[in-house]
Amino acid sequence: MKKQLFNQMEQSEATFAKMAKEIWDNPQIGYEETFAFELQKNFLAEQGFRITTGSGDIATAFVAEWGTGAPIIGFLGEFDALPGFSQRTTATLSPIVEGGPGHGCGHNLLGTAGVEAVVALKNTMEAEKIVGTIRYYGCPAEELLSGKSYMARAGVFDDLDIVYTWHPGTFNMVVHPSMQALTGVEFFFSGRTAHAAGAPHLGRSALDGVEIMNVGSNYLREHVPDGSRIHYQITNGGLAPNIVPDKASVYYFLRGATRDAVDDLLRRLIRVAEGAAHMTETTVRWEIRSGCYDSLPNMTLNNQMYAQWQEIPPIDFTEEEQAYAKALQQSIEPSVLAGANHQLAMMGVDVSQLFTKEPLNIPQLFRQSMPGSSDLGDVSWIAPLGQVTTVCAPHGVQVHTWQATSSFGTSIGMKGMHYAAKTMAGAALDSLLNPEIIVNARAEFDRLRAGKEYICAIPDNVMPPKSVPVKV
After folding, report:
1. Does residue 443 come out as left (phi exceeding 0), alpha (psi in the -120 to 50 range) or beta?
2. 141 and 197 inside one domain
3. Residue 111: CB atoms within 10 Å
4. Do 441 and 302 belong together in one domain?
């Protein structure tokens, strides 16, 4: 049955490569992904899936469901692009639209692999009369670290038994251990305007408040738990140099090992902001923009996904693809490539002669630390979650770069996507046929969660941004 599933998927690869490329050709940022939303939603409806839109009050979110009864197995999809990463599929910097968005994180592939997996699984379940329910979740705005959080707050993942996902990468690996929890918060200072030369003593600078807060946060960095991160961006610095600004704002990302650690970091940062306001005789308020959990990697499901690679033939790259990968690799600043080599060496991979001739000849790795954050962390606190990455770009290419956008639009990215789709579909089929996998995954999940219940870190009164209206 597994062989038939994989054979069926090989026969339909062109369909999903076309879908992924169309999304790559039409990149849209978070909460504006109307093209991918319509494309995937309509395709799955044509395949017989029941469609629910507006999940979590997000216009570009949807759930596609097929089947009845237990178990309920989910697949997470994403399709938002990044601002500023427009790029042709070339080995040199060449934007399609200067300053335009591009799929520098490969979400054109990520979501499409989920669609590819559920369609193949649905056909197999139908033919073999396998009982169960499968769902594809079209999740917007992962790059804003909030799409799945809003969906989770609305309860759309609550009845899942298990869930699978993946991410485009530069080698095949099981994602372990956890990614970091995160809070996005914007602080707004208010003061009083004055002429900066004629009467500066009459002004109360909101920008001074922002800058003193930033100084305080930089001193705070010494006194936070190891691995914590504080990043900020001044979002409003005033109108003109000769006007004491009465409005200024700064946007912070706070990261930490756990949700509790980030919540405490937010508490301390708020005190820094209040201190800055007192020092400058301004006032300050803040708004939560995003809040996601650290992820709970489920080794039962990760082991199961890794086992699929013993059944699926390895990705075979052509000489032409290897040549493109080598040229793209040569565009990377040497220190970045050296850092990537060091990362692999720390995991025990011999890099002495690796990547010299075949930059896409990458080993399969069982585990890897992920220092970033993702809103899939919220889902992992609601249901057991398994995750892998697959080769979609040459070694050394970092996501959120033009090189990544380029590779994710080529046949290299498509081959990695198909490999991931097979991995997820094969693992889900095993779970449908062997309920003990789900029982074991749930037992591990309960042990890791240790009685802590999921409570969305985004306050109930904070609503998702309004999406661009879908054109009919």
Report:
1. alpha
2. no
3. 31
4. yes
Per-residue pLDDT of the chain in tens (472 residues, 90 and over written 9): 999 999 999 999 999 999 999 999 999 999 999 999 999 999 999 999 999 999 999 999 999 999 999 999 999 999 999 999 999 999 999 999 999 999 999 999 999 999 999 999 999 999 999 999 999 999 999 999 999 999 999 999 999 999 999 999 998 988 876 889 999 999 999 999 999 999 999 999 999 999 999 999 999 999 999 889 999 999 999 999 999 999 999 999 999 999 999 999 999 999 999 999 999 999 999 999 999 999 999 999 999 999 999 999 999 999 999 999 999 999 998 888 787 777 666 666 666 544 444 566 555 554 444 568 999 999 999 999 999 999 999 989 999 999 999 999 999 999 999 999 999 999 999 999 999 999 999 999 999 999 999 999 999 999 998 754 444 3
Length of the chain, please?
Answer: 472
Residue 460 lies in a domain: no
Q: Are residues 27 and 109 in the same domain?
A: yes
The model's pTM is 0.91
Distance from C-alpha of 360 to C-alpha of 419, rounded to nearest angstrom: 14
Instruction: Identify the domain containing residue 197 by its residue range.
Output: 181-292
Pick from 36, 22, 57: which is nearest to 138 by CA? Answer: 36
Q: How far apart are CA 77 and CA 115, in angstroms?
A: 8
CB 187 within 8 A of CB 250: yes
* Residue 458 near residue 146, CB atoms below 8 Å: yes
Segments in 233-293 forming alpha helices (H): 259-280
Pair 299, 310 in one domain: yes
